[in-house]
Design a protein that fits this description.
Belongs to the ATP-dependent AMP-binding enzyme family. InterPro entries: AMP-bd_C (IPR025110), AMP-bd_C_sf (IPR045851), AMP-binding_CS (IPR020845), AMP-dep_synth/lig_dom (IPR000873), ANL_N_sf (IPR042099). Pfam families: AMP-binding, AMP-binding_C. Keywords: Ligase. The protein is an alpha/beta fold and 516 residues long. Among the domains are: 149 residues, 3-Layer(aba) Sandwich (Rossmann fold), CATH 3.40.50; 101 residues, GMP Synthetase, Chain A, domain 3. The chain is 31% helix and 24% strand. It contains 18 helices and 29 strands. A nine-stranded mixed β-sheet has the order 2-1-12-11-13-14-15-16-17, sandwiched between helices. A six-stranded parallel β-sheet has the order 7-6-5-3-4-8, with helices on both faces. Strands 18-19-23-24 form a four-stranded antiparallel β-sheet, with no helix packed on it. α17 links the parallel β28 and β29. The chain is globular. 46% of the residues are buried. The model has no long low-confidence stretch (mean pLDDT 91).
């Protein structure tokens, strides 16, 4: 293999600025390499072996990056945890991933510590960035450990948790390859190469979204393995994005359509104030982008906006700026290493232009939902899989999405699953029945709406809505709370008990040009 891969690049040029934390602190590659190496030596002393897992509840920045780089050269699975989750939700991920070490930043001390207790992980495997009662500072693990590369290096992987439409989130687990970590990292760079992205300085990648998202980890990690400087944002802000692009001569990033909407809302003089001439590959995904929004972004930034459609499970499409202009609204064509299959309810392939369930496959990349062979099998059709989205292919092979997974809500690029919220609400004694779904939101794409059938004798109204929401405190992260609650006398259900959610949802989407 060649000369890509962070560990190779860091040894060749230890002075390269590999990452810039949200506070502006610059971290050179040699220093970051030494941190990752010390973590490997320390965790191996704790008994970690290839195939084991570690979890990190950490904000965007080099603390999480060091964990990622340690796991990926020691043959471990690294699971970054969503910091919006509550203690019980965090504890489930730590336990289900069978983490042999759990790292928490002091910013998330309260829920992070609750998660540790819920998971049952041994107290000697709890480590903190900063001070958390009952956790050992990371320095205790790494101080005195050698800075040099560990022996017997082997490629690890990330294992992200993807929420299911039913029940608990599942870890998407890929078999380990046994490759040299740098060779494995170099294979990863094929992802960015598909967009035409080139290796080496002076490239810089802006990390705009939380690193617990699969795509954010993938695109950021891959940019680093290509020798790009990672510039981390802590909390996304439209003008700050422009300032960082100018300050660090950012060439590429990964964004969601909500970011575009906020950027376009900036006053004209603010938009003109910043030099964005360095931008070359601004990639977006995670939610459908309204055609007018994308058109305005292309007019402002030029032909640097690329789109793709993919899933944590693997496979996908890509639309270059030129593709999109010729096929407005498309999410692109299949990757060279991926295949698309559109089928009807009987699993027969449908003709061009006819909507059906989208199945994808990615050459040579298997996966399983950890601990759930039934779910893994249920989403398969031969060697293709689906996340349940509906779309069609045009005569040139470009994919268009028409609807998605029956019920999933995408708000600000984040997937939210109604079943989980419904399960928590149904516990409330004053609720007889409930349905949760997405309704249009001009800023976020969708917002969460709950429709409640009150228990007999319970009066509907604002007081009941307030009481219901407060019952979710500490059980469900606030990003999953319904924005509004409506009341209904009787929920529309078929005789077999199946909820006719579309009957409830359709009126809110009337007059919209797409049901997403």
């Amino acid at each position: 293999m060649g000369s890509l891969g962070f560990w190779r690049l860091a040894q060749a040029d230890p002075e390269w600025v590999a990452a810039v934390d949200p506070d502006g602190a610059e971290h050179r590659a040699g220093e970051l390499l030494a941190r990752a190496n010390r973590l490997v030596h320390g965790l191996r002393e704790l008994g970690l072996r290839p195939g084991d897992g570690i979890c990190g509840l950490v904000p965007n920045g080099t603390d999480g990056l060091a964990l990622y780089l340690a796991a990926l050269q020691a043959g471990w699975y690294y699971t970054p945890i969503n910091w919006h989750l509550t203690g019980p939700e965090i504890g489930y991920v730590v336990a289900d991933s069978e983490a042999r070490a759990y790292f928490v930043h002091e910013r998330y001390a309260v829920e992070g510590a609750r998660g540790a207790r819920e998971s049952g992980i041994s107290p000697d495997r709890l480590f903190s960035f900063g001070s958390i009662e009952g956790f050992r500072p990371v320095a205790e693990l790494t101080d005195g450990q050698p800075d040099d590369l560990p022996a017997d290096r082997t490629a690890g992987a990330t294992m992200h948790y993807t929420s299911g439409t039913t029940g608990r989130p599942k870890g998407v687990r890929r078999p380990l390859t046994g490759l040299d970590p740098d060779d494995s990292a170099e294979f990863m760079t094929a992802l960015l190469a598909m967009f035409g992205i080139t290796p080496g300085p002076p490239n810089a990648h802006l990390v705009t979204s939380p690193c617990y998202h699969t795509a954010v980890t993938q695109f950021g990690g891959t940019a680093l393995h290509m020798g790009h400087t990672l510039v981390y944002m802590d909390k996304w802000d439209a003008e700050e994005t422009l300032r960082l692009c100018e300050r660090h001569r950012v060439t590429n990033s990964h964004m969601v359509p909500t970011h575009f909407k906020r950027l376009l809302a900036l006053p004209e003089d603010v938009r003109r104030r910043y030099d964005l001439s360095s931008l070359r590959w601004m990639i977006h995904a995670a939610a459908p982008c309204p055609v007018p929004v994308k058109q305005q972004m292309l007019e402002w930034w030029g032909d640097v906006i690329y789109e793709y459609y993919a899933a944590t499970e693997g496979g996908g499409t890509i639309a270059t700026p030129e593709d999109w202009k010729k096929h407005p609204g498309t999410v692109g064509k299949a990757w060279p290493i991926s295949e698309l299959l559109i089928v009807d309810d009987d699993a027969n392939e449908v003709p061009t232009g006819t909507p059906g369930t989208i199945y994808m496959k990615m050459a040579g990349l298997g996966f399983e939902y950890k601990g759930d062979p039934a779910k893994t099998a249920a989403n398969r059709l031969r060697d293709h899989f689906t996340v349940g989205d509906v779309g069609y292919l045009d005569e040139d092979g470009f994919l268009f999405l028409c609807d998605r997974k029956a019920d999933m809500i995408i708000s600000g690029g984040t997937n939210i699953y109604p079943a989980e919220i419904e399960n928590e609400l149904l516990i409330h004694p004053k609720i007889a029945d409930v349905a949760v779904f997405g309704v249009p939101d001009d800023e976020w794409g969708e917002q969460i709406k709950a429709v409640v059938e009150p228990a007999p004798g319970v009066a509907p109204g604002p007081a009941l809505a307030e009481e219901i929401l407060h019952s979710l405190e500490g059980r469900l992260s606030r990003m999953k709370w319904p924005k509004t609650i409506d009341f209904i006398e009787e929920m529309p259900r078929e005789p077999n008990g199946k909820l006719l959610k579309r009957k409830l949802r359709d009126p809110y989407w009337e007059g919209r040009d797409r049901a997403i």
